[in-house]
From TrEMBL, chain A:
It comes from the Bacteria. One of its GO terms (molecular function) is NADH dehydrogenase (ubiquinone) activity. Residues 67-117 form the NADH-Ubiquinone oxidoreductase (complex I) chain 5 N-terminal domain. It is a multi-pass membrane protein. One of its GO terms (biological process) is ATP synthesis coupled electron transport. It is found in: Cell membrane; Membrane. The lineage of its organism: Bacteria, Bacillati, Bacillota, Clostridia, Eubacteriales. It comes from Caloramator quimbayensis. This is Membrane bound hydrogenase subunit mbhH. Pfam families: Proton_antipo_M, Proton_antipo_N. Keywords: Cell membrane, Membrane, Transmembrane, Transmembrane helix. The chain crosses the membrane at residues 7-23, 29-50, 85-104, 116-133, 139-156, 168-191, 211-235, 247-268, 280-300, 307-331, 343-362, 374-391, 411-433, 454-477, 530-551, 613-632. InterPro entries: CPA3_Na-H_Antiporter_D (IPR050586), NADH_UbQ_OxRdtase (IPR003918), ND/Mrp_TM (IPR001750), Proton_antipo_N (IPR001516). Belongs to the CPA3 antiporters (TC 2.A.63) subunit D family. Belongs to the CPA3 antiporters (TC 2.A.63) subunit A family.
From TrEMBL, chain B:
PROSITE patterns: COMPLEX1_ND1_2. One of its GO terms (cellular component) is plasma membrane. It is a multi-pass membrane protein. The chain crosses the membrane at residues 6-29, 71-91, 97-119, 140-162, 239-256, 268-288, 300-319. The keyword Phosphoprotein does not apply. It is found in: Membrane. Keywords: Lyase, Membrane, Transmembrane, Transmembrane helix. It comes from Caloramator quimbayensis. Its main location: membrane. This is Formate hydrogenlyase subunit 4. InterPro entries: ComplexI_Subunit1, NADH_UbQ_OxRdtase_su1/FPO, NADH_UbQ_OxRdtase_su1_CS. It comes from the Bacteria.
């Protein structure tokens, strides 16, 4: 029975989409029930797989329509779920489930919602199918499904300025990425006459032709486009900004993770014997550029969601860097950060959605003072902001720390320094958001804002709670989720044997397949439970002091009743506030002034012209291919 | 018994009470020395205590435009994180929580007081605070780069000797290295990093000429403009604690070693060294300079101190 769970968890999402197309137009209750049941069942099925796969180390293989291999040659489409696939499937199904719950309230004022849910479930099913598939052509098909669903969802609120333009950019850039992947897949098929990932990995072991290397370059670029790595990122900010927040969460939580997953499979599975350390430098350079450019672009944004989109790009840079380090510790950091990024960035997008729901805009210049109106959202946002900036004891700290450590150990000092600096800039950027959205003066637009309904707050609280849990219990997360996934990434012999038959890998490798030994020595110590205990004890002490009445905190003024007394007004040097000349709107003036050349260059580079962005991608492809041919032996 | 021991660590030594006295006295010494350098008599050394207790007794006014809970909670969060850091900094061979003393953890924990200042200021709803926090943010970005590089250089230097050639981020390993090979300062390749760190201290604690965030004459103490009474007192305490903790971290990184083995003497030596470091890096500079502009500060930190710490890092990497 268990081997049917993966395929069921994919099919149920697609089934939900078709049912929604048929019956979803009738009433919102039908729609919501169908969506909730299909995403919930899919999530449950994936959860049930944790025990056999993560804990017992099984690998589930499944041949669609029972087209089993004939004389060791794969014919049918295979699904294969090892620990790495399951790790990503968990991220996907968790995000999808929460985003679905959030959508019920968040989207209630839009029309043609049946189409929204159809596309939403197609997107989810596409990504789910992608991460569970064991067949590269099937992966391409799933990429097409989720890319086109994503494009349509980007333009779903087509009354928002720029939505159609964003969708256009996304379709052009996304199609280029898909074409690269298709071309790479075709070349591999022409060379090896099979599409099964396990079989390709076995056949291609230390047996490369120029054509397979060319295909590596194409597919690498294709997946780089899918995960929005700089310089292939140009479609992302627009798409994230204009899509509904529940969808932006899916974009950053799983669509670009799909690209990362594809990249891991490509590098560690298909081309595993290509001598990864030589690919290492290219990937690390790309990752470092991505994190730096992402965060600096985020500093100068004036739109809440656009800013989050650039941060999303920047955080993917961390993931890619971690994976590119190709040590067990690096991959652990990368995958941990992928998990954390899904949690905190999803949370932040949900907060942006909550703000949009209450106020109707995400323009940072129009927002302000929302913490008084929406205290829950403000608190949740702070948790998300601290997590992404990597303040202990939240989760961003753990994974970033692993990445710094592994980069430093491998001798990439500059990468560690840039990564730490990017972390500081991330913090600075989120302080700007906190200041201009939740604190500061209450703006005109926000006067009638209300706290969002409980249906939207529940997913946000769950995400916030998860951010905290993964931050304070890293050793359990590592032990039960990350380390199995890392060992699956490196243990390709097991993957091949589980798909085809025992000893298959050894037959083609012509040597015993090494089983990776995952143990790493940490240069420092991270024991978050100590911090938690400390924080709690000290907090208790202070609360006691305050409660004992030793210090008068003036309890009266904590009551939110407004008191008419000039003493409680804000200080404006004796001027009336409307005549005050104190501006202070631009929080990064000093930084922008010192780096004006850089910022001007970046500003003009992001011209908004799709042709330019296409050129960037083609150039990236050219560079990657040239790199592979010149430097990889 | 174990719980009592930890409670003692947290609340008495090297935690809250020790930091409280050490920090405020250090702030008093700093004020006195600056005054003497400027040919003033200056306040008594215990003046920060008087200030603190006076503020505790004053009425706390929370403006109507403030997000009230955040307004009160922000300074306390900053204080908590400072006390937490104090537990992780080894005093020669003694440290309260040995297993968790880690340089990167400390880098991040050190940003929390600054963040608490920013969050508190921004929750007050004042435009002056808005200007102040933007400056505070630029100052964080400024000093963080040389600080990171200097710490990495120290970690590499110690790790090459005592951690099988790998980097170490553990503070107790760094102390162990110094007890074997003498203080970091006596290794000439570490002198540039030492100088860079000396420059970082005044910016980290926010004293002249790097107190752009709290410039009284321009923006009325920026983030603190709306604060009064109890939370203001906590912020003043945070300032004093920051001076002490950062100089103590500095001493641990560069001037530590075997010590005498008796905690009391070790703490006294550490404290005397802290006073010297503060006089050198905070008081001396504060007495003779005027406030910088925002963009000058960023430019300064990203050139000279950064170059110095990079020089150190390269030297260490070359094995010198």
């Amino acid at each position: 029975m268990m081997q049917h769970y993966p395929v069921l968890s994919i099919i149920i999402l697609f089934l939900g989409a078709f049912l929604n197309a048929l019956f979803g137009g009738k009433s919102s209750i039908v729609r919501n029930i169908i969506t909730f049941l299909s995403t919930g069942t899919s999530f449950l099925l994936i959860l049930l797989l944790i025990k056999p796969i993560m804990l017992e180390g099984k690998v589930i293989s499944y041949w669609m329509g029972n087209w089993i291999p004939v004389s060791d040659w794969a014919i049918g489409i295979g699904l294969e779920v090892d620990q790495l696939s399951l790790f990503f499937a968990l991220l996907v199904s968790f995000t999808v489930f929460l985003s679905g719950i959030y959508s019920f309230k968040y989207m209630e004022n839009d029309d043609t919602l049946d189409k929204y849910y159809v596309l939403y479930l197609m997107l989810s099913g596409g990504v789910m199918g992608f991460v569970l598939s064991g067949d590269i052509f099937n992966m391409f098909v799933m990429i097409e499904i989720f890319t086109f669903a994503a494009v349509a969802l980007t333009a779903f609120r087509n009354y928002i300025e720029g939505a159609l333009e964003a969708a256009f950019k996304y379709i052009v850039i996304g199609s280029i990425g898909s074409s690269f992947i298709l071309a790479g897949t075709t070349l591999l098929y022409a060379q090896l006459h099979t599409l099964n990932m396990a079989q390709i990995a076995a056949l291609m072991h230390k047996n490369y032709t120029p054509i397979t290397l060319f295909s590596l370059g194409l597919m690498f670029t294709g997946y780089a486009v899918k995960s929005f790595i700089v310089p292939c990122h140009a479609a992302a900010p627009d798409a994230y900004m204009t899509a509904p927040s529940s969808i932006s969460m899916l974009f950053s939580g799983m669509v670009n993770k799909a690209g990362v997953y594809g990249m891991i499979r490509l590098l560690y599975m298909l081309f595993q014997s290509i001598n990864l350390p030589s690919m290492q430098i290219l990937i690390i350079i790309l990752g470092t550029i991505t994190m730096f450019i992402g965060v600096t672009m985020a500093l100068i944004q004036n739109d809440f969601k656009r800013l989050l989109a650039f941060h999303s790009i920047s955080q993917i840079g961390y993931v890619i860097t971690g994976i590119g380090l190709s040590t067990a510790l690096g991959i652990t950091g990368g995958l941990y950060h992928a998990l954390n990024h899904t949690l905190f960035k999803g949370l932040l997008f949900l907060c942006a959605g909550a703000v949009f729901y209450s106020v109707g805009t995400t323009d940072l210049n129009k927002l302000g003072g929302l913490a008084k109106k929406m205290p829950h959202t403000a608190l949740i946002f702070l948790i998300g902001a601290f997590s992404i900036s990597g303040l202990p004891p939240f989760n961003g700290f753990v994974s970033k720390w692993l990445i710094y450590q592994s980069a430093y150990e491998e001798g990439f000092v500059i990468v560690t320094i840039i990564a730490l600096l990017v972390s500081v800039l991330t913090l600075a950027s989120f302080i700007k958001v906190t200041q201009s959205v939740f604190f500061g003066q209450l703006s005109k637009e926000c006067e009638n804002a209300k706290e969002v309904p409980i249906g939207m707050r529940i997913p946000m609280w769950i995400m916030a709670f998860m951010c905290f849990i993964t931050g304070i219990l890293p050793q359990y997360v590592t032990k039960y989720l990350i380390t199995p996934a890392v060992s699956a990434t490196l243990n390709i012999g097991k993957y091949i044997d589980a798909m085809l038959k025992d000893g298959y890998a050894e037959k083609y490798f012509k040597e015993t397949v090494p089983v990776p030994n995952i143990n790493y020595k940490l240069a420092g110590y991270w024991r978050p439970e100590y911090y938690l205990i400390l924080f709690i004890i000290i907090l208790l002490a202070f609360t006691l002091t305050v409660l004992a009445g030793g210090i008068d905190v003036n309890r009266r003024s904590i009551v939110s009743k407004e008191i008419e007394d000039y003493k409680y007004d804000t200080f404006y040097s004796g001027e009336k506030s409307e005549y005050s000349q104190v501006g202070g709107a631009d929080l990064f003036w000093g930084l922008k002034y010192d780096f004006r050349k850089y910022f001007n260059f970046m500003h003009s580079a992001h011209s908004g012209v799709v042709n330019d962005y296409t050129l960037w991608i083609i150039s990236t492809a050219a560079i990657v291919i040239a790199y592979i041919f010149l430097l990889v032996p | 018994m174990l719980i009592l021991k930890y409670l003692f660590y947290i609340f008495v030594f090297p935690g809250f009470l020790f930091c409280f006295f050490a920090g405020l006295i250090l702030a008093g010494i700093d004020r006195k020395i600056v005054a003497r350098m400027q040919k003033r008599i200056g306040p008594p050394i215990l003046q920060p205590f008087y200030d603190f207790f006076k503020l505790m007794g004053k009425e706390t006014i929370i403006p109507n435009s403030a997000a009230k809970r955040t307004f009160i909670a922000a300074p306390v969060a900053g204080l908590i994180s400072l006390v937490t850091i104090s537990l992780f900094i080894p005093i020669f061979k003694f440290s309260a929580f040995n297993a968790v003393a880690d340089v990167i953890v400390i880098i991040y924990l050190l940003t929390i007081p600054a963040v608490s200042l920013i969050i508190g200021g921004s929750s007050s709803g004042s435009p002056y605070a808005g200007v102040g926090i933007s400056r505070e943010m630029v100052s964080i970005v400024s000093y963080e780069l040389p600080l990171i590089i200097a710490l990495l250089a120290v970690g590499k230097k110690a790790g090459m000797a005592v951690n099988d050639g790998m980097v170490t981020f553990s503070l107790s390993k760094i102390v162990e290295y110094q007890s074997l090979k003498g203080p970091m300062l006596f290794h000439w390749s570490m002198i540039p990093a030492f100088l860079a760190m000396l420059f970082v201290i005044p910016c980290e604690v926010g004293s002249l000429p790097f107190d752009i965030a709290e410039a009284e004459v321009e923006i009325c103490e920026g983030p603190l403009v709306e604060y009064s009474g109890f939370p203001l007192g906590i912020y003043k305490l945070n300032y004093a604690l920051k001076i002490f903790i950062f100089s103590s971290l500095f001493v641990t990184l560069f001037l530590s070693g075997n010590g005498t083995g008796i905690i009391l003497f070790d703490a006294a030596i550490q404290y005397v060294l802290c006073i010297i470091v503060v006089i050198l890096s905070v008081s001396l500079i504060r007495a003779v300079t005027a406030r910088l502009r925002v963009e000058q500060m960023l430019k300064f930190y990203w050139t000279y101190p950064t170059a110095l710490s990079i020089l150190s890092l390269i030297l260490v990497w070359l094995g010198l």
